[in-house]
Amino acid sequence: FLSCSVAMSVRPAGHGSAVTPERPPQWCASPNLASAKVGGKILFATNEWFARAENLLNPAEPISRFGTFTDHGQWMDGWESARKRIQGHDWCIIRLGVPGSIAGFEVNTAFFTGNYAPKISIQAASLTREDEPYKLQDWKSEQGLVADEDDLEQAARLKSEQWTTILPKTPLRPGYADSCKHFFACPSTQVWTHLRVNIFPDGGVARLRVHGNVQRTIEPGKLINLLAIENGGLPLAWSDVHYGHPKFLINPGRGVNMGDGWETARKPDRPDVLQVDSQGHLLQPGSEWCVLQCGVPGVAQKVEIDTLHFKGNYPESVVVEGLVAPPQKRSLEGMSERQVAQLGTWKTVLKRTKLRPHERRIFQLDSQVAVTHIRLSIFPDGGVSRLRVWGQAKPELWIKGSQL
Fold first, then answer.
1. pLDDT digits over 310-367, tens only?
2. Which residues make Cβ contacts (< 8 Å) with residue 87, sequence separation at least 6?
3. What is the per-residue DSSP string for 166-218?
4. What is the DSSP letter of 162?
5. What is d(CA 62, CA 107) in angstroms, rounded to the nearest whole number?
């Protein structure tokens, strides 16, 4: 399999001039509200002849299986409709995994070189589940599917053609390595739940990422996972992301493999011969760490640490700390150590505790700590699949943090 950065996707001679790849804007550090990982779902598509619309929401990077054919044609990792031979254009309806305000769209046409959609536009609405026709709630994205009259009638009940346009009709480029990624800022600050994605007139798009800010009402005092991405949690800073980013720590569910977790490189300055102290902890200088911002601040009551899939590379032990501070903006590069130090004084949530491989553990806390931010330190290095901090929601802590 090939990713969109490999040689096979380089523009062949005679296929137009090379372009300078766009740099991802800072809003790409915001969560992907449409990701299938957080519950994003296709409710309708006019045509999925060559490839399923649900591929748009896959959090993984697109791949190529050049030369692999199905009954419907070349296998493609994205949404691709048939060549249109009737009036109109193709479109699909997406229910966002979590409601939120949208900062921008990342549209990827990777590997769609002679079959990419020439133009795209996006409309949005704020709906409840009750507004969705029942048949659309059970929509199954399927290769070779073409919407019939009943499907179109059900979709028409949403009146999606009247939804607010938040991305006007915009040209796309072919899916070569130097041109496949597009970034479109969204000026809207309204909270949206559903999108209509229009392609003109037909063709393929590999991925759609909808970056924005989670907007969800949480009942004060309710026991929730304060760090969950679906509650607005964010990774802010990290010491090392050699094999995996800490953003995976706050994903829902359990990790699907080692790539679905935070993993650091081995420390190159580790001792030649390892020793342990009286507690059984490794006597090795240093640790790796990451800082996460709670989506909803609260009072921590229990901590869940999952090393699923990390069997020969789990951390020997961990420390979890917390503090109360103002909300911070996330950046692609992460906060510096100096900026992290300026957040305030960290309090111990979970003292240094040994871990085991490929195991989920839940620790009831002896004392409850108010937190808006969490720092996870792993000794000496390694990988963790998930971190969850369960506690009572206390939204007023943001106000307290801003007064510190």
1. 999 999 999 999 999 999 988 999 999 999 999 999 999 999 999 999 999 999 999 9
2. none
3. EEEEEE---SSTTTSEEEEE----SEEEEEEEEEESS-EE-EEEEEEEE----
4. G
5. 12
